[in-house]
Amino acid sequence: MYKEIERLLLLSKRGNKEAKETLLLKLNPLIISSIRRYYNRIDQYDDLIQEGYETILQAIENYDPNRGVKFLGYVKAMLRYGYLEKHREKQFLSLNEPLDEGEFIDLLEGNEEEPTDIIIKREEIKILLKSLNCLTERQRQVVVEYYINRMSIDEIADKLGISYRTVVNTKTQGLNKLRKWIVK
Protein backbone atom coordinates (compact mmCIF):
# COMPACT_ATOMS: atom_id res chain seq x y z
CA MET A 1 0.00 0.00 0.00
CA TYR A 2 2.85 2.40 0.85
CA LYS A 3 4.45 1.85 -2.54
CA GLU A 4 1.11 2.55 -4.21
CA ILE A 5 0.73 5.80 -2.25
CA GLU A 6 4.29 6.83 -3.12
CA ARG A 7 3.60 6.08 -6.80
CA LEU A 8 0.37 8.10 -6.73
CA LEU A 9 2.19 10.93 -4.95
CA LEU A 10 4.85 11.05 -7.64
CA LEU A 11 2.22 11.12 -10.39
CA SER A 12 0.22 13.77 -8.50
CA LYS A 13 3.26 16.00 -8.16
CA ARG A 14 3.68 15.74 -11.93
CA GLY A 15 0.12 17.04 -12.42
CA ASN A 16 -1.81 13.79 -12.99
CA LYS A 17 -5.35 14.63 -11.84
CA GLU A 18 -6.53 11.01 -11.81
CA ALA A 19 -3.64 10.08 -9.53
CA LYS A 20 -4.59 12.94 -7.17
CA GLU A 21 -8.20 11.77 -7.05
CA THR A 22 -7.14 8.17 -6.42
CA LEU A 23 -4.72 9.30 -3.71
CA LEU A 24 -7.47 11.33 -2.02
CA LEU A 25 -9.81 8.33 -2.09
CA LYS A 26 -7.12 6.05 -0.65
CA LEU A 27 -6.47 8.54 2.17
CA ASN A 28 -10.18 9.09 2.95
CA PRO A 29 -10.11 6.57 5.88
CA LEU A 30 -7.17 8.50 7.33
CA ILE A 31 -9.18 11.73 7.13
CA ILE A 32 -12.16 10.14 8.88
CA SER A 33 -10.03 8.60 11.64
CA SER A 34 -8.29 11.96 12.16
CA ILE A 35 -11.65 13.70 12.46
CA ARG A 36 -12.85 11.14 14.99
CA ARG A 37 -9.68 11.41 17.02
CA TYR A 38 -9.02 15.15 16.98
CA TYR A 39 -12.29 16.97 16.18
CA ASN A 40 -15.29 14.67 16.41
CA ARG A 41 -18.20 16.90 15.38
CA ILE A 42 -20.72 14.73 13.54
CA ASP A 43 -22.75 17.75 12.46
CA GLN A 44 -19.74 19.07 10.52
CA TYR A 45 -18.39 15.83 8.96
CA ASP A 46 -18.91 16.91 5.34
CA ASP A 47 -17.06 20.18 5.88
CA LEU A 48 -14.34 18.45 7.89
CA ILE A 49 -13.80 15.85 5.17
CA GLN A 50 -13.48 18.63 2.58
CA GLU A 51 -10.94 20.37 4.80
CA GLY A 52 -9.08 17.06 5.04
CA TYR A 53 -8.95 16.82 1.26
CA GLU A 54 -7.65 20.38 1.08
CA THR A 55 -4.99 19.53 3.67
CA ILE A 56 -3.88 16.50 1.64
CA LEU A 57 -3.75 18.55 -1.57
CA GLN A 58 -1.62 21.11 0.26
CA ALA A 59 0.56 18.29 1.60
CA ILE A 60 1.08 16.97 -1.94
CA GLU A 61 2.34 20.38 -3.02
CA ASN A 62 4.55 20.99 0.03
CA TYR A 63 5.93 17.49 0.62
CA ASP A 64 9.71 17.19 0.34
CA PRO A 65 10.99 13.59 0.44
CA ASN A 66 14.52 14.88 1.14
CA ARG A 67 13.51 15.75 4.71
CA GLY A 68 13.49 12.08 5.67
CA VAL A 69 9.77 11.85 6.48
CA LYS A 70 7.42 9.44 4.75
CA PHE A 71 4.51 11.06 2.94
CA LEU A 72 1.90 9.18 4.99
CA GLY A 73 3.48 10.37 8.25
CA TYR A 74 3.57 13.91 6.90
CA VAL A 75 -0.14 13.77 5.95
CA LYS A 76 -1.07 12.33 9.36
CA ALA A 77 0.74 15.19 11.10
CA MET A 78 -0.85 17.80 8.84
CA LEU A 79 -4.34 16.41 9.48
CA ARG A 80 -3.73 16.14 13.21
CA TYR A 81 -2.52 19.73 13.51
CA GLY A 82 -5.29 21.00 11.26
CA TYR A 83 -8.08 19.40 13.27
CA LEU A 84 -6.47 20.21 16.63
CA GLU A 85 -6.14 23.84 15.56
CA LYS A 86 -9.79 23.84 14.50
CA HIS A 87 -10.64 22.42 17.91
CA ARG A 88 -8.86 25.36 19.56
CA GLU A 89 -10.74 27.97 17.53
CA LYS A 90 -13.30 29.72 19.62
CA GLN A 91 -16.76 29.98 18.21
CA PHE A 92 -18.47 33.11 19.37
CA LEU A 93 -22.20 33.22 19.81
CA SER A 94 -24.04 36.50 19.98
CA LEU A 95 -26.32 36.92 22.97
CA ASN A 96 -28.99 38.03 20.52
CA GLU A 97 -28.53 34.95 18.31
CA PRO A 98 -32.01 33.71 17.36
CA LEU A 99 -32.74 30.21 18.65
CA ASP A 100 -35.83 28.01 18.58
CA GLU A 101 -36.69 29.08 22.13
CA GLY A 102 -36.08 32.81 21.62
CA GLU A 103 -32.70 34.50 21.88
CA PHE A 104 -29.59 33.07 23.52
CA ILE A 105 -29.66 35.75 26.22
CA ASP A 106 -33.10 34.50 27.29
CA LEU A 107 -31.56 31.13 28.16
CA LEU A 108 -29.00 32.60 30.54
CA GLU A 109 -29.88 32.24 34.17
CA GLY A 110 -28.50 33.35 37.49
CA ASN A 111 -25.63 31.67 39.32
CA GLU A 112 -27.84 29.95 41.87
CA GLU A 113 -28.02 26.20 41.54
CA GLU A 114 -31.41 24.58 41.42
CA PRO A 115 -32.09 22.06 44.19
CA THR A 116 -32.54 19.31 41.59
CA ASP A 117 -29.14 20.15 40.07
CA ILE A 118 -27.52 19.88 43.51
CA ILE A 119 -29.12 16.46 44.08
CA ILE A 120 -28.08 15.24 40.62
CA LYS A 121 -24.48 16.38 41.21
CA ARG A 122 -24.39 14.56 44.55
CA GLU A 123 -25.68 11.37 42.92
CA GLU A 124 -23.11 11.65 40.14
CA ILE A 125 -20.33 12.06 42.72
CA LYS A 126 -21.58 8.97 44.60
CA ILE A 127 -21.58 6.93 41.39
CA LEU A 128 -18.09 8.16 40.49
CA LEU A 129 -16.69 7.37 43.95
CA LYS A 130 -18.23 3.88 43.84
CA SER A 131 -16.87 3.28 40.36
CA LEU A 132 -13.33 4.16 41.47
CA ASN A 133 -13.39 0.90 43.45
CA CYS A 134 -13.42 -1.08 40.18
CA LEU A 135 -9.92 0.24 39.37
CA THR A 136 -6.63 -1.24 40.44
CA GLU A 137 -4.76 0.69 43.11
CA ARG A 138 -2.34 2.22 40.58
CA GLN A 139 -5.14 3.15 38.14
CA ARG A 140 -7.08 4.81 40.96
CA GLN A 141 -3.97 6.67 42.11
CA VAL A 142 -3.17 7.93 38.60
CA VAL A 143 -6.76 8.99 37.88
CA VAL A 144 -7.11 10.80 41.22
CA GLU A 145 -3.75 12.55 40.89
CA TYR A 146 -4.47 13.63 37.32
CA TYR A 147 -8.14 14.69 37.53
CA ILE A 148 -8.62 15.65 41.16
CA ASN A 149 -5.18 16.85 42.27
CA ARG A 150 -4.48 18.33 38.79
CA MET A 151 -0.97 16.84 38.57
CA SER A 152 0.70 16.56 35.18
CA ILE A 153 1.66 13.21 33.70
CA ASP A 154 5.33 14.04 34.36
CA GLU A 155 4.63 14.85 38.01
CA ILE A 156 2.69 11.62 38.49
CA ALA A 157 5.50 9.62 36.85
CA ASP A 158 8.05 11.22 39.18
CA LYS A 159 5.88 10.71 42.25
CA LEU A 160 5.17 7.04 41.51
CA GLY A 161 8.64 6.30 40.13
CA ILE A 162 7.30 5.00 36.81
CA SER A 163 7.73 6.08 33.20
CA TYR A 164 5.66 8.74 31.48
CA ARG A 165 4.28 6.14 29.03
CA THR A 166 3.23 3.85 31.91
CA VAL A 167 1.25 6.71 33.48
CA VAL A 168 -0.47 7.43 30.15
CA ASN A 169 -1.33 3.75 29.62
CA THR A 170 -2.53 3.33 33.22
CA LYS A 171 -4.74 6.43 32.96
CA THR A 172 -6.20 5.25 29.65
CA GLN A 173 -6.92 1.76 30.96
CA GLY A 174 -8.46 3.21 34.11
CA LEU A 175 -10.73 5.55 32.17
CA ASN A 176 -11.84 2.72 29.88
CA LYS A 177 -12.67 0.59 32.93
CA LEU A 178 -14.59 3.48 34.51
CA ARG A 179 -16.55 4.06 31.32
CA LYS A 180 -17.55 0.41 31.11
CA TRP A 181 -18.44 0.27 34.80
CA ILE A 182 -20.54 3.46 34.77
CA VAL A 183 -22.38 2.58 31.55
CA LYS A 184 -23.53 -0.79 32.95
From TrEMBL:
PANTHER family: SIGMA FACTOR F FLAGELLAR (PTHR30385)
Organism: [Clostridium] ultunense Esp
RNA polymerase sigma-70 region domain: residues covered: 27-90
Keywords on record: DNA-binding, Sigma factor, Transcription, Transcription regulation
CDD domains in the record: Sigma70_r4
Single GO biological process annotation from the record: DNA-templated transcription initiation
Name of the protein described by the UniProt record: Putative RNA polymerase, sigma-24 subunit, ECF subfamily
Top-level taxon of the source organism: Bacteria
GO MF entry, a single one: DNA binding
Domain RNA polymerase sigma factor 70 region 4 type stretches: 127-178
NCBIfam families: sigma70-ECF
Pfam families: Sigma70_r2, Sigma70_r4_2
